[in-house]
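Input.
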Amino acid sequence: MPELPEVETARRRAEHALGGRRIAAATLAPDPIVSRGLRPARFAAALRGRLVVAVRRRGKHLWLELDRRPWPLFHFGMTGAFEIDRGPARAPASGRS
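Output.
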C-alpha cells in the first residue's frame, strides 16, 4: 500500500515529466469500477491536446491541473503508479558527416 511519501514521489515525477507539456494521447483501461462508465475513447479525447499546468496532491488523491477542465483525478489506494510514454527515443547527433 503506498504511503503519503510514495504518493508525493509519484506526484513529483509526474510533474517533472508532464509539467508544461501537452498530452498527445491517453488511455483508460475499461474498468467499470475505476472509470464509472466513462468510455476510454471519450476519456482520451477529453485530454488530448491539453496543457499540463501542474500536478497536485491531497492525501492519496493526485490530479492533473490542465489548461482547462476536466482535470483527471487519481487515487493511490492499495496500489498505484503512472506510466509515462515519452515516445520513441532519439539518438543524439554524433557530429559526423
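The radius of gyration is 16 Å.
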